[in-house]
Amino acid sequence: MFRVHLKKTKSVRQILQEHGLLDDFLKKHPYNHGTKYFPGLQNTFATDSEPMQNYMDIEYFGTISVGTPPQEFTVIFDTGSSNLWVPSVYCSSGACSDHHKFSPQQSSTFRSTSQTLSITYGTGSMTGILGYDTVQVGNIQVSNQIFGLSQTEPGSFLYYAPFDGILGLAYPRLSYSGATPVFDNMMSENLVSQDLFSVFLSPDGQRGSFIMFGGIDDSYYTGSLNWVPVSVEYYWQITVDSITFNGQAIACSGGCQAIVDTGTSLLAGPPNAIANIQNFIGGQYSNGQYIVNCNAINKLPDIVFTINGIQYPVPASAYIRQFSSSYCASGFENMFFHSDLWTLGDIFLRQYYSVFDRANNQIGLAPVAK
């Protein structure tokens, strides 16, 4: 069992704002403002968990290594994508100059390919080449893992990002260039005792966030896990029954599809439904986000997501993000890229311990222990 711990710092949005770049960035990327994108045991640590860093409730990331000897990188552990990529010495973009870069020449186990990789994110993009090498996540060592070596990382988002790359944990069908995801190799090489991983995202900064490969830590949640079938094996996609506010349906009244995504910071949905929610919580659009009166945190009721017959309330203290005593913003945002899908990002996941079960194609959810 191995757990990767996650830590906490300032958000990319805040950094862009401090540098006077946020408005220009939002004009160029008019969607996903808090997100990243859409499109017999052989190991003694058969269940392993990795610490992750909470980047001011925007991104969660931890450390992996690639190559022999190991070269370390910080990556987002992202259930909304399937590729692993890191910056490389072949990259001349400004974003690469400010991050760790993988050098194939310094790894005795690297194997090159002629395949290319191109991924477009709602808040950035990368192009590069694919190669194979040893990837270590905590104490789990994956041999001959295919991964991307970035050659370009244009734009400001990845330049200011506190992480180097991304480790995707969704289904193989979502993987660009047909690259086998890291967790699929963990499963096929019998490196985990169970074909699942679980995630705890600290809601208060008091306890360390983590992702656990091959196991579940029941001390981090209350009650029992409720299991939700995966409806489409692409993203970690599920069916939501309804979204209610004071018992009144304010969105998804006839049911809808949602992605459970550790790589998305906010709660995203179709523009019309999000506009309705902003209206209910008093959100006023300003400079790329919806501003909410901070007093509303103590007055507004929970917004309840009913999933597979079980209610999952999200309190106002979670869906309203407080940056100062007088500056608060809505945690809901428009999703234009997949206008028919909702995304249950970190705002939701901080409330619920989550288990991503590949063996049974289901997601387990339980309230985090307070």
Describe this structure in words.
By secondary structure, the protein is mainly beta. It has 2 domains: 2-200, Beta Barrel (Cathepsin D, subunit A, domain 1), CATH 2.40.70.10; 217-367, Acid Proteases (Cathepsin D, subunit A, domain 1). Helices cover 13% and strands 42% of the residues. The chain has 8 helices and 29 strands. The protein has helices at residues 12-18, 22-28, 94-97, 157-160, 182-188, 271-281, 316-319, 346-349; strands at 2-6, 48-51, 53-55, 59-66, 71-78, 84-87, 111-121, 124-137, 140-152, 165-168, 196-200, 209-213, 226-229, 232-233, 236-240, 242-245, 248-251, 256-260, 267-269, 284-286, 289-292, 303-307, 310-314, 320-324, 327-330, 332-334, 341-344, 352-357, 362-367. The strands form 5 sheets. Strands 1, 2, 11, 12, 13, 28 and 29 form a 7-stranded mixed beta sheet that branches. The model is unreliable at 27-47 and 53-58 (pLDDT under 50).
